[in-house]
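anyone else get weird line breaks when pasting these?? whatever heres mine. first is seq + tokens for prot A
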Amino acid sequence: MSWEQIIFYLFAALAVIFAFLTVTRRNAVHAALCLIFCFFFIAGTFVVLNAELLAAVQVLVYAGGVVGLMLYVIMLVRGEDASQVKQALGQKIIAAFISVLLVIQIGSIVYLSFAGKATGRLAQEMARYGNTESIGTLLYTKYIFPFEVASVLLLAAMVGAIVLAKNKLER
């Protein structure tokens, strides 16, 4: 086993541990801090896999922007109040069902990758052009419609959040 594999498995294991800690913490601030560590370890796995663009996006967008915004909102609405929200039984059943589906999906991905059957178009493009260029080429050619739909959805969510915040301030 090479040193790259050892580092990859170490980062992956730490990411899973911090992801588990994120969903089990009662204090929302502690959960957000565990999420930051999880994002950094995921970025580390991307670096080991020579996906530097994804690692940079992971750190800048997710660890820096999203979690920073989450911490700001948690502090703004008093994080202690958020930790005392009770879950209904239906929410726990749905969460358990989705967790089982996620474990099945991850298991199938691991099985296919070890069986050597997980070669797709992105792997072929990366071998020909390189990491960043192949992602950009696929994103702006084959996947342009889903990219634009995601952009419109994010814009609608941002406008909705501004409208809700403005209505709350006017009251």
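and prot B, same format (seq, then tokens)
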Amino acid sequence: MNIYEIHKYLVDFLKTEFEKSGFNKAIIGISGGLDSAVVAYLTKEALGGLNVLGVIMPYKTSTPENTADAMHVCKTLGLRSRIIDITPMVDEFLNVDRHMNHIRLGNIAARSRMIILYDLSARDNALVVGTSNKTEILLGYGTIYGDTACAINPIGDLYKTQVWELARELGVPEKIINKVPSADLWVGQTDEGELGFSYKDVDKLLIEMIDNKKSDSELIAMGFNKDFIEKVRKRIKSNEFKRRMPLIAEIPK
């Protein structure tokens, strides 16, 4: 599919799945970043702005620019919106453990946002729409039962580089498209800094490794670095638990 066809397919997907489930309202956590903006644009087109609630949930270290960009997306699309500061929720955990590191704090922030989104979905009889892309899902770059929690996800089969392309097709502001990818979990945090490689480089590898099912020897022959291949494969395998439902022991009958 070309990017125009993907655009139309995803809007139809949202329309169809919402109708099948009996819901006509959506809740989206909007961060001011690329992925949530793309999902907001798609969902607005599918359901109409008044049926979408954009929830902006900054923490005290969040960049004010991201909150402003998230509000801009909501206003541009005519979405209902709400800002909820998660600082009191998150800082309660800091009172319990003052030695908490950045990773744990980021997980708590992500799960606090999930609690808010699902509470609002219960209030409004709405579905939570997810914003994780295929690159993040494969690499486990997300918090289980946090930012990966949702009822429906229109971009989960799109690599990050494809989401950039779709953003331009949808008319997402260039300021957001050109922003350095960041979960905004702490000051100076970036996705690529944490991952240790760029989305552009890893997407090239993932397309050949996952979609085209190339072996390591074939990937090396194509010019990919052996250490890079091994690092990505290991990361995919170690995060498999995030991509499946909880395992339930089946009792022999």
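btw re prot B: The chain has a mean pLDDT of 95. The radius of gyration is 19 Å.
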